């Protein structure tokens, strides 16, 4: 039984990592889009970032060295990642339930990681976690985990109530949204109650973590806690398959869209990437596009559906000689 | 048309009836002098003929006027085309330009409705569900998961279901033209999802696959520009004639000889105006010519096809049309061997050529582009012009064109000028990158078919109207002339029409105009009174 539980936990962790990586790679490999930034862009020069300005406020900006204000970007990113600053500013009511849910999860994940590291240390250097130090470590991960779980379950319950009672949210709520929240509530509930109410003699958190790392099948886990562990494993594998993987998406929506203000510089990697896209052959059907699958994006862009005029200029890497509205002759 | 809350499935209703109807009393209240809904204009109803002929079953207006299909087969054919276009939106060969942000938006919206609170249209409509940014996006999202990602029972459970039929497609066409594409919603999204982009991509699908777009921005817009050189219909001879007339007029009015240079090879600056300025507000290009000459700038206009009209309506609905016009602008600059392109007072032209086109202006078309706001700021701050701010001693507020400010980050230069030259300058709240759209963005300012104007003044322009009235609450009296500085042609078009609609010039002396006019009005060497307090 324990073997199955261990396999499930390892498999779900692996699935989580692989599915998250697949999703991230998928988004990263999509073509570079046209610029679509939104201001303020926090890595702008601090003087301009204050009012949301860009390098376009500067005369002959292309002659000036490009600046990238890492401090500004971090000062914008960290409060958003840790405290959901945007939601605090723009939707305070939602923040009151979303923040505890998310921050509680961070605490649960952080404490679990800390517990795993402690267990590893205990296996490799048992004397290092003996006595007082071991007790302190135990209180750190246990208190962190419990506080996180309480926060997260509270937040999830509040979110669930809002989803079901607020008409503005209910219209857009699908069964999966309800189930997802219930999934978190039940999982964290089982883990917390299963741990706190476990019978005497049952393995504690450190023993369980050590058991998992050493594949110790002699441990006996009480039913509710075991159910919590199974649900936790399934939830871990499930999250990256859903829109809840927005922790991955958010990297791209911010860094690759909202804040991507990189100008195109002749001969740059960016220009070379676009040169490849200009050779794509779209198939849009409207007559004014003239995209029958034989003409490249560049050829389409260089023709004039209102006139029969050939271009006299060229785009990087694209031979445009002889292009007319009828296509390449 | 009940007041019952709209659901997502309503969009597929086959009944040929609008989904919602707005009364003036439903709308967001306005401050004085427009605080009484009962005294507001009544909406012009759509004529029976229009309702019989076109697909106008979304709300009280009709922006695109798609003819009603004549048979079930025709409907099915159109739905097939829509599906085909939907699939293309999610392939790199067809949509590399916006695939990444679109996919991220489709797959990660948390439906928290934070965006709704940021949307001026939703707020102004009295929080009508139809105009909630996620209403449109959620329909597209469900279609995406069902038809592009394969659908199935699990998908329906996970992402929700929607019934695809012609009424849905027809309503989506209209609904894609109920968003100003100002992207204020995207700015507040905690995930970074972009409902404005969804409206943009929908318009693109309809144009690029089905050949359906608002006539004003396609046929009379980008196509006319590509045919004669300008969406105003002016060819190069006409535009030169008009500029010559403007030069004469401005010379006489200011007492300073003004001559606009044309096609000067090797000039430092190629200035491209929105040609609408030449037709509707000639004092703007005239003021530019006067200021640039006075500052000793080496500059020129171009008479190349589209080189004298910076508009690029493709930005709002069609990537191919967008790219074609952007390339023409860059080509005009390349031929003249200028050092840089400076964009006149037109917000969408700024964003189109400076930002969005940046990655397709490769090779020898990658010519630097700059905002006229920075150039004007530099001229004013350099001390080259003798300026007397007391000439601008009237209340001035600044409108931030979304394309110039939130979407390009040009926030301060125009303010530096206004603060230096306008003693009674005051900000609207909020302003800068948190501004609200004028309500004319994404082509609405030039769209007036059927009763669309009623909608854009009552709904899309309402928040800006509230901001303007609030900014001038201390001086609403008609004895005090007031000036909305709007450095954007489209925004000015919206203000012209909206102020006239509510009679705010006659009753409260609220006028609108550009930034460069304020500069010339303050020039000591110029005859006083460049800004004429007359309605136009």
Please provide a written account of the structure.
- Chain A is mainly α and 329 residues long.
- Chain A folds into 2 domains: 2-31 and 84-258, Up-down Bundle (Fumarate Reductase Cytochrome B subunit), CATH 1.20.950.20; 269-329, no CATH class.
- Chain A has helices spanning 2-28, 46-49, 70-83, 85-90, 92-124, 131-165, 167-170, 175-196, 205-214, 223-238, 246-258, 269-277, 297-302; strands spanning 323-324, 327-328.
- Chain A has a two-stranded antiparallel sheet with strand order 1-2.
- In chain A, β1 and β2 form a beta hairpin.
- In chain A, 33% of the residues are buried.
- Mean pLDDT of chain A is 92; it is low at 320-329.
- By secondary structure, chain B is mostly helical.
- Chain B folds into 3 domains: 8-210, no CATH class; 219-376, Rossmann fold (3-Layer(aba) Sandwich); 386-522.
- Chain B has helices at 48-53, 72-89, 92-95, 99-108, 114-118, 120-124, 133-148, 153-159, 166-175, 184-188, 195-210, 218-228, 236-254, 275-280, 283-294, 319-336, 347-355, 372-382, 413-421, 452-460, 462-471, 489-501, 504-508, 516-522; strands at residues 269-272, 299-300, 340-343, 369-371, 396-398, 425-426, 482-485, 510-513.
- Chain B has a 4-stranded parallel beta sheet. In chain B, strands 6-5-7-8 form a 4-stranded parallel beta sheet.
- The two termini of chain B are 39 Å apart.
- The mean pLDDT of chain B is 96.
- Classes of the chains: A mainly alpha (329), B mainly alpha (536).
- The interface between A and B is large, with 97 and 101 residues.
Task: Outline the fold blueprint.
The complex is a heterodimer of chains A (329) and B (536).
Chain A: H1 2-28, H2 46-49, H3 70-83, H4 85-90, H5 92-124, H6 131-165, H7 167-170, H8 175-196, H9 205-214, H10 223-238, H11 246-258, H12 269-277, H13 297-302, E1 323-324, E2 327-328
Antiparallel strand pairs in A: 1-2
Helix pairs in contact in A: 1-10, 5-6, 5-9, 6-8, 8-10
Chain B: H1 48-53, H2 72-89, H3 92-95, H4 99-108, H5 114-118, H6 120-124, H7 133-148, H8 153-159, H9 166-175, H10 184-188, H11 195-210, H12 218-228, H13 236-254, E1 269-272, H14 275-280, H15 283-294, E2 299-300, H16 319-336, E3 340-343, H17 347-355, E4 369-371, H18 372-382, E5 396-398, H19 413-421, E6 425-426, H20 452-460, H21 462-471, E7 482-485, H22 489-501, H23 504-508, E8 510-513, H24 516-522
Parallel strand pairs in B: 1-2, 1-3, 3-4, 5-6, 5-7, 7-8
Helix pairs in contact in B: 2-11, 7-11, 12-16, 13-15, 15-24, 18-19
């Amino acid at each position: 039984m324990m073997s199955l539980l261990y396999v499930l936990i390892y498999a779900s962790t692996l699935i989580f990592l692989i599915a998250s990586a697949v999703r991230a790679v998928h988004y990263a490999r999509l073509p570079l889009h046209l610029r679509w930034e939104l201001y303020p862009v926090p890595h702008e020069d601090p003087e301009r970032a204050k009012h949301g300005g860009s390098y376009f406020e500067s005369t002959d900006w292309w002659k000036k060295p490009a600046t990238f204000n890492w401090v500004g970007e971090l000062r914008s990113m960290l409060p958003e990642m840790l405290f959901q600053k945007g939601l605090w500013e723009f939707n305070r009511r939602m923040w009151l339930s979303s923040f505890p849910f998310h921050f509680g999860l961070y605490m649960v994940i952080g404490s679990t990681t800390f517990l795993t590291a402690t267990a590893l240390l205990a296996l490799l250097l048992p004397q290092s976690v003996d006595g007082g130090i071991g007790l302190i470590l135990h209180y750190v991960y246990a208190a962190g985990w419990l506080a996180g779980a309480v926060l997260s379950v509270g937040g999830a319950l509040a979110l669930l109530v809002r989803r079901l009672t607020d008409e503005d949210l209910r219209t857009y709520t699908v069964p999966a949204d309800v189930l997802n929240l219930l999934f978190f509530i039940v999982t964290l509930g089982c883990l917390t109650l299963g741990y706190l109410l476990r019978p005497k003699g049952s393995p504690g958190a450190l023993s369980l973590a050590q058991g998992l790392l050493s594949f110790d099948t002699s441990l006996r886990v009480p039913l509710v806690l075991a159910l919590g562990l199974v649900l936790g494993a399934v939830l871990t594998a499930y999250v990256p398959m859903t829109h809840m993987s927005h922790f991955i998406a958010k990297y791209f929506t911010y860094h690759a869209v909202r804040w991507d203000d990189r100008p195109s510089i002749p001969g740059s990697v960016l220009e070379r990437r676009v040169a490849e896209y200009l050779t794509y052959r779209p198939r849009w059907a409207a007559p004014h596009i003239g995209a029958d699958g034989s003409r490249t994006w560049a050829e389409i862009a260089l023709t004039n559906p209102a006139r029969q005029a050939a271009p006299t200029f060229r785009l990087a890497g694209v031979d445009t000689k002889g292009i007319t509205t009828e296509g390449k002759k | 048309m009940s007041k019952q809350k709209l659901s997502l499935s309503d969009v597929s209703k086959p009944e040929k009836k609008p989904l919602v109807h707005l009364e003036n009393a439903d709308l967001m209240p306005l401050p004085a002098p427009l605080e009484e809904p009962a005294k507001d204009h009544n909406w012009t109803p759509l004529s029976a003929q229009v309702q019989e002929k076109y697909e106008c079953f979304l709300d009280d207006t009709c922006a695109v006027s798609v003819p009603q299909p004549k048979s079930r087969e025709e409907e099915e054919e159109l739905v097939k085309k829509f599906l085909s276009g939907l699939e293309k939106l999610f392939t790199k060969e067809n949509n590399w330009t916006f695939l990444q942000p679109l996919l991220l938006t489709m797959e990660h919206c948390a439906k928290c409705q934070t965006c709704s609170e940021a949307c001026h249209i939703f707020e102004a409509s009295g929080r009508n569900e139809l105009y909630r940014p996620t209403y449109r996006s959620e329909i597209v999202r469900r279609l995406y998961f069902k038809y592009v990602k394969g659908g199935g029972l699990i998908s329906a459970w996970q992402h929700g279901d929607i019934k695809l039929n012609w009424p849905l497609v027809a309503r989506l066409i209209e609904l894609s033209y109920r968003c100003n594409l100002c992207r204020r919603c995207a700015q507040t999204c905690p995930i970074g999802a972009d409902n404005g982009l969804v409206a943009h991509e929908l318009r693109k699908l309809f144009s690029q696959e089905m050949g359906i777009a608002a006539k004003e921005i396609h046929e009379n817009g980008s196509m006319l520009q590509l045919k004669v050189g300008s969406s105003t219909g002016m060819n190069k001879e006409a535009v030169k004639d008009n500029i010559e007339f403007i030069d004469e007029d401005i010379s006489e009015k200011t007492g300073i000889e003004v001559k606009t240079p044309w096609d000067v090879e090797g000039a430092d600056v190629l200035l491209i105006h929105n040609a609408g300025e030449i037709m509707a507000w000639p004092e703007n290009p005239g003021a530019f010519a006067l200021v640039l000459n006075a500052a000793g700038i080496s500059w020129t206009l171009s008479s190349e096809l589209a080189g004298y009209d910076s508009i690029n309506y493709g930005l709002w609905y069609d990537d191919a049309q967008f790219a074609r016009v952007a390339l023409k602008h860059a080509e005009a600059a390349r031929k003249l061997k200028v050092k840089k392109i400076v964009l006149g007072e037109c917000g969408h032209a700024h964003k189109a050529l400076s930002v969005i086109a940046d990655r397709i202006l490769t090779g020898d078309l990658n010519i630097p582009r700059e905002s006229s706001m920075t150039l004007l700021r530099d001229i004013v701050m350099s001390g080259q012009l003798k300026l007397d701010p007391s000439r601008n001693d009237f209340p001035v507020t600044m409108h931030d064109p979304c394309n110039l400010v939130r979407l390009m980050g040009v926030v301060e230069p125009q303010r530096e000028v206004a603060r230096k030259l306008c003693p009674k300058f005051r900000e609207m709240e909020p302003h800068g990158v948190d501004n609200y759209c004028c309500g004319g963005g994404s082509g609405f300012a030039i769209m007036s078919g059927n009763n669309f104007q009623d909608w854009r003044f009552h709904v899309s322009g309402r928040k800006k109207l509230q901001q303007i009235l609030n900014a001038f609450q201390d001086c609403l009296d008609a004895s005090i002339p007031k000036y909305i500085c709007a450095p954007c042609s489209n925004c000015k078009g919206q203000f012209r029409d909206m102020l006239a609609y509510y009679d705010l010039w006659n009753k409260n002396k609220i006028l609108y105009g550009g930034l460069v006019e304020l500069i010339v009005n303050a020039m000591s060497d110029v005859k006083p009174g460049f800004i004429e307090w007359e309605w136009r």
